[in-house]
Amino acid sequence: MTKASLWMVDADVVTEAALQRWRGWLSPGEMARHQRFVRAQRQRQFIIGRVLLRMALGRLLAVTPQEIRLEEQVGKAPRLVAPVRKGETTGFSIAHSGRWVACAVSAQTALGLDIEMKDASRDLHALAAQAFDSAEMAQWARLQTLPEPERVEGFYRLWSEKEASFKLGVAAGGHCWSLPHAELSVALCSELPLDRAPALELITLE
């Protein structure tokens, strides 16, 4: 069975004391990257994302979060250094948008995850023209006949699936799921087909 787990946390409820404690979990490379972020919100998202990932991988691999070792890669997602198990493909992906931070993990397949706040105030036509290819633009054009709430929902579904597929990085685009959330468009793509859509778990980090 090919499965994936998807964890999400509301970063606004995480305390400064917890953030300070978790800094000790990060590798020197992660700390260096954290310090390069100028905005405090992005620094916060980075720490929470790496802690959430360690907790999810810890459960998946039956180790403590502190035993998870990650290595930074320039322009890429981090690489899992330990524990690495022979014959297993440990896939994972991290995403953030607004106050939400999420990660997906699997012991069987590579993953790409994206989350996007469904913000109707943005210029969706300009964003589509800038980012979508011809096939995506055709889908966006078909959405123009729908009421605004459905049109916004459809735009962010296209956007998040495109980003998740890009993060997965396989030529065929993989197998993608769109998952329901009140505030977010959530897309998860996998290299191998999943047996079922993963449940979206809201986690409290402390």
From TrEMBL:
GO molecular function, one term: holo-[acyl-carrier-protein] synthase activity
SUPFAM superfamilies associated with the record: 4'-phosphopantetheinyl transferase
Keyword set includes Transferase: yes
UniProt xrefs under InterPro entries: 4-PPantetheinyl_Trfase_dom, 4-PPantetheinyl_Trfase_dom_sf, AASDHPPT_N, P-Pant_transferase_sf
GO BP annotations listed: lysine biosynthetic process via aminoadipic acid
Domain of life: Bacteria
Domain 4'-phosphopantetheinyl transferase residues, every copy: 111-168
Domain 4'-phosphopantetheinyl transferase N-terminal residue range list: 25-105
Any one annotated GO CC term: cytosol
UniProt keyword terms in alphabetical order: Transferase
PANTHER family: L-AMINOADIPATE-SEMIALDEHYDE DEHYDROGENASE-PHOSPHOPANTETHEINYL TRANSFERASE, PHOSPHOPANTETHEINE TRANSFERASE
Assigned protein family: Belongs to the P-Pant transferase superfamily. Gsp/Sfp/HetI/AcpT family.
Name assigned to this protein: 4'-phosphopantetheinyl transferase superfamily protein
Species, as recorded: Duganella lactea
